[in-house]
Each structure stands twice: as C-alpha cells, then as structure tokens.
C-alpha cells in the first residue's frame, strides 16, 4: 500500500472516529480499536477493509440503477452557466425514481410511528400520509446524504440516521400543513377535504402537535445534539415565518425583503437544515455542511417562488386548491410585489391586504398585465443556479446528478 494512500485512509479514518455519533454506527470491534492504543494502525487496516466493502456495496447499488437509460437531456430552463456544469454532468437522473428504494416505506413507516392506543388520534394524524404527497423534502435529504457519502467515502450507502432524517423532514412538513390549513381556513389539501374540515379545528391542531411530538421523539433517538439544534431552528423559523406572513410592512421598500425573509423561514428553513443535518449525520466537515445548507436554502426559496408563481398561473384542478388563493388570504407574494412597480395602484391594495371588494380581481389582472410573473420565475431561476453552483464541489455521482435534476423539477413543476 503506497504511503500516500495510507495517510489518506488515516485522515478519513480519523474523521470518522472523531465523530462520536458515527462511531455508534460502526461495529463493536471497530469501536474497540478506537479505544486501543494501537488504534491508528489497526483502524487503518480495518478501515481499508470496510472501505473496500462499502465501495463494493456502493458500486453494486449504483449498478442496479441503469445509469444511462434513465438519463434525459437537461432542458434549457435552467440556463445554467457552463462553468457550473462540467460536460460529464450534463445528463440528469429522475430524483424521485432514484430515491424510491429508500422511501418506498416512507408513509407506512410514519404511520407506524403515529399509531397510538387512541385509534382516533392515530387516524387523524395519519390522514395526510396517504402516499399522494410529492415527498419532495425526504427525496432531497436522501439524495444529499447519498451524494455526500459518496463524496466523502466513495460509497453512497445511506446511514440509518440519515434515513430517519428524511422521515422527520416529512413529518414536520406535514404537521405544519395541518396547522396551516387551520390558519388559512382551507377546505382542501391535495384535492381532498382538509383535516380541519373533517374533524374540526381543535382536533386538527392537536393532530399537528402529535405528529410534531412523534417527530421529536425520533429526533431524540438520533442522539445527536447538533442535529437537535438544527431541527429546533426549523420549528422556530416555521412559526416565525407564519407570523411574519400575518403582518405586512407599511414601508414599501421593506416589503420585498420581508417577503424573502418570510419565504426562507416558512419554506426554505426546513429543506436547508434537514440537508445540513444529513451532512452532520454523515460526518461531513464544515464546508460540506454549509454546501448542503445552501443547496437546501436555495432550492427551498425557489420552490416557494414557483408556488407563488403557480398561484397565478395554474388551474384550480392542477393545484388542488383555488387559484389566486394568496390574494384571497390577503398575501402579497413576489408576482404582486413586482407588479406594483409597474402598477402603483396595487400598493394601497397590498397595504389593506386586498380586503376591499374587487381588490383581488384587480390585482390578479394587474399581475398578468405586468412582468411580475416573469420576474418571479427569473428570481427562482437565480436561486436554482445558486443551488447548482453550491453542489458543484461534490464528486460526480448519480445522486449528485439527481440533486441537479431536483433543481430542474422545481422550476418545471406545474402543481
Ligand atoms: C404552507 O403555506 C405552510 C407552511 C409551509 C408552513 C406553515 C407553518 C406553520 C403553520 C407554523 C406551525 C409549524 C409547525 C411545525 C406546527 P401555504 O399556505 O403558502 O401553502 P398551501 O397553499 O399549501 O397551504
Ligand atoms: Mg395554506
């Protein structure tokens, strides 16, 4: 074994063993080696074996995905600067297909976590875990985890803790939707009656709390204090974001900044911190943790911008909720804020939260006459390009390509 390779193994091994949480996931023999005075040599030898095994497993798993068959040519939507995407990475993978084996039991796993002695509570809190969600957040977590594991260990094997993080992400997201439908007095969610309509507001709030509490229990089982802090911040942001949305600024120039801040807290915080948590759980260094955070942050902001765009563009049947729902709720999102630059008469409407008869219709029309929608899409595209540039530091892998494809899907989506 060449000396340089050995020192590389030693460096990687030291990083692994420095991470106490990861240490728990390795075998008792390996743990013993860590405690032994002869640690460094024995660990190196053992690690070489494990590394070879992981590489082998990694290759076998990767070969099970027909690499070239699933690639489709990247559309021009992203208009990605060539510098971000080296030639070999032009082709992309279907991220949902790639993450499917990891998430095949996502909803049944969550339902198990939610099963309680009270059938009624279990039934209400499981209601949205019906397999009809996009599972967008878990897909991001799983792909980020695998792409990072491949970058660090040359094996994309998913750690169980990272898999649990994907579950937690979906549970927090769904709990927030149950509460959100109460706040927005929504009758429907994903084309079916909302929890609050079927069981009333009180039970909806309790069901949301219950999902959150069960997610907190799974989080505690990960036994990683850093990750607990990250996820606590997500919960703080979600509540603050929702609160920010309820208030509006009288200062016109402040409005857009507030909107972006709210967008991060309400939507992007969850994707940013859960991607970062996947990195922490995988033993990634600070640079890689920040990369994961920035990817999740930018994709999350773009996702919300496109949501706000679709509120004006998609049909009710596509969205599974009424169009211009944000205006009806009194919310001024990016398309209206941009449109108000061309049509200043929108400004007093924004200030009074479109509460006067005819405001919603007038604002809807003004947005379509303006370039607000094009500007919104452009801003989303900029965030996508930023996400792309952050993951460019990762070693090429199918998972990295799938992360790139996630970005494309965010921009292309129609519901
Ligand atoms: C959907 O927004 C809602 C969110 C992304 C977050 C809602 C957060 C809370 C209600 C705070 C409480 C948080 C927890 C964790 C219980 P939307 O109304 O824009 O989207 P929609 O059209 O899908 O309803
Ligand atoms: Mg809502």
| SSE-based structural type | mainly alpha
For the largest beta-sheet, the strand count, sense and barrel status come to: 2 strands, antiparallel
Counted beta strands: 4
Give the CA-CA distance, first to last residue.
Answer: 54 Å
Low-confidence stretches: 1-90
Average pLDDT across residues? 82
Question: How much β-strand is present in the residues?
Answer: under 5%
Over all CA atoms, what is the radius of gyration?
Answer: 23 Å
Shape category = globular
Account of the 3D structure:
- A hairpin with a 2-residue loop joins strand 3 and strand 4.
- The model is unreliable at 1-90 (pLDDT under 50).
- The strands form 2 sheets. Strands 1-2 form a two-stranded antiparallel sheet.
- It has helices spanning 3-18, 20-24, 28-35, 39-63, 95-103, 106-114, 119-126, 136-153, 160-183, 195-199, 201-222, 225-246, 252-281, 286-313, 316-319, 325-328, 334-342, 346-351, 359-369, 372-391, 398-412, and strands spanning 72-73, 91-92, 188-189, 192-193.
- It contains 21 helices and 4 strands.
- Helix 3 packs antiparallel against helix 4.
- 72% of the residues lie in helices and 2% in strands.
- The protein is an all-alpha fold and 415 residues long.
- Residues 180, 184, 186 line the site of magnesium ion.
- InterPro entries: Isoprenoid_synthase_dom_sf, Polyprenyl_synt, Polyprenyl_synt_CS.
- GO terms for molecular function: all-trans-decaprenyl-diphosphate synthase activity; metal ion binding.
- Pfam families: polyprenyl_synt.
- Its EC number is 2.5.1.91.
- It comes from Nephila pilipes.
